[in-house]
Hints:
Layout: H1 2-19, H2 30-45, H3 55-70, E1 80-85, E2 88-96, H4 98-125, H5 131-147, H6 154-172, H7 179-210, H8 215-221, H9 230-247, H10 257-263, H11 266-291, H12 296-319, H13 328-351, H14 357-386, H15 400-403, H16 405-419, H17 425-440, H18 444-469, H19 483-501, H20 504-507
Antiparallel strand pairs: 1-2
Amino acid sequence: MSSLAQPLAEPLAEPLAQSLVQSVDWLAIAPPTVAALVGLVVLVADLFVADARKALLGWVAVAGLAASALLLLPLVGDDRSTFCLTGDAAVCSYTADTFTLAIQFLVLGGALLAALLSVTALKDADRGLPEGEFWFLLLSSAAGAALLPASRDLATLVVALEVASLPAFALVGLRQGDRRSSEAALKFFLSSVTATAVSLMGISFLYASTGTLYLTQVADRVQHVDGQLTTLTQTGVVLTLVGFAFKTAAVPFHFWVPDTYVGAPLPIAAYLSVVGKAVGFSGLILVTVVALPSYADAWGPALAVLAALTMTVGNVGALRQRATRAYSAVRLLAWSSVGQAGYLLVPIAAAGYSDDPERSIGSTVAYALMYAAVNLGAFAVAALVGRTRALNRVADYRGLYASNPLTALLLAFFLLCLAGLPPGIIGLFAKVTVFSAAVDAGLGWLAVVMAVNVVIALFYYLQWTALLLRAPEGETVRHRLPAPLTAALGATAVLAVALSGAPQLILRFADTGLF
């Protein structure tokens, strides 16, 4: 009897085996994969490298991030997908399209600059920070952040989000015996865990009502759910959006930002301000525009209100910072980043009203690239001043032009870019692009709120800029520029100047399709 059953079983086994096999495009997944592998190499090498040569681990990490970024070049202009369903090649878990590559460039470039800042910070810490663990955590977080914009199913999206977030908790609290660092890590951890729990609940509701995790399939099926599941679906949409609002530091989910930036090592604060923001916004874009376009009438108004609240609270918070308060420079940059998050939310909200949502999303990507370059530059100068002024107050920047003329001019240029004033042309054009997205979508009231907030931000950006050029009080302190810090500052300066001279390099994203 077994001999008769065997021939019948063989034809059934072959299709089942085939259905479980997925092709892997190794070139498409190379950027996040290389970052992750280098992180493992650094962790293992830390066991064998002598303490006197631990600095080599940092340069290995820098080289790994540079290699990951360079691996984006072969993917430009060629949309590639992998981990696709064998029965439907159009449904995939990983896609390297224009949107993915733009965000991956921002993430890996931002992580590379943060790594250059960290090389100097770790040396100054004099073993106050464990180097092997630091580089492993930074590379792991960067790998997760690079994976997220390529994710095209909800499971991969959540995994990438947590791979990016979990190492960041540890990085914030890695300074041993530092009360501020521990408090910052705890606040960051609690807020992020809450966001994850809320997101997972929402995603589970969406899966229960649609029966799929793939974003494109969710977009199709969510429009035709059974009437009994409508309430479940709507609840899932709301919870998913609330979870990602935590990740973007949108008001009222922003409370962790100032204390976290102050308590974290300064390079990690810079990393969170750019890469952490990119993670939250790219996830929010994928969930809203790709997975839930049919619910645009719900998430569009909600994000518009969040954008208005976020930019207003962020700018008012920055305006209230006293120049003589300890760590006021870092706090001002933290509140400024909350305000900038409000500007980044505007085009996403506009996508809910627009007939061409991809163009609106392109405005967010263009603004994010501008913000990343100039904000990392501002943090690089803050890291330089913080080497001799441990309290890093805004007042410590008075007379910086007298001691470090080029550094002071660069910080002034970065601040003017953030304010949207010439000669920071790229900041002005990026704000106009975001403003136009709101007007074109019929969100005139949001454009007015944005204009008012731009005027509010002008005050504190110009106040800080003017302080750089004033006569110093007391003895002039010259800040010595180490090579890694010089490289980070030079790279951000070149990028910001180049974008101001040729803003079309990134503004073209507002006119072309990203998906």
